[in-house]
Amino acid sequence: MSVPPNDSPELLRTATPVVHGAFRAVTGFFFACHGAASLFGVLGGAHGGGTVPTLAWPGWWAAVIQLVGGSLVALGLFTRTAAVISSGSMAYAYFSVHQSNGLFPLVNGGEASAMFCWAFLLIAFIGPGAFALENVLRRGTPTARASEPATPVRATS
Questions:
Q1: Which of 16, 61, 114, 145 has an alpha carbon 20 to 30 Å from 102's alpha carbon atom?
Q2: Could you report the per-residue pLDDT of 12-25, keeping only the tens digit for each?
């Protein structure tokens, strides 16, 4: 008996690492923008203008995690570690700030926190994808297959 063909089209299979890397880079960039807005008052500032007070708990620390963690994830450096910390900070934000205002994210204003939390958790598990700087440092050249999961071995009869 022969091994059945992969049921996903070739284009989807070959584009997966590239889309994966783009998802990582865009998610990290958006997260870093939130941190820059809160710390430096750019891009509309914190809560519609201004900055968070320096060393204020938890806002200033969250903004630092957003800027540093988002930048690291966007660049693909220490991706898994930065993604776990970023995911945890968004889980903390959701449960400490938003959940008391209602059960569901749409009601309590926590959509961004919930989505970033889950997106970074996904990135932590699946790795950086294509075009990550850690792939360049590890192998010397960027490759689309750097973080592609190994193909499972299928039993034949």
A1: 61
A2: 888 888 999 999 99
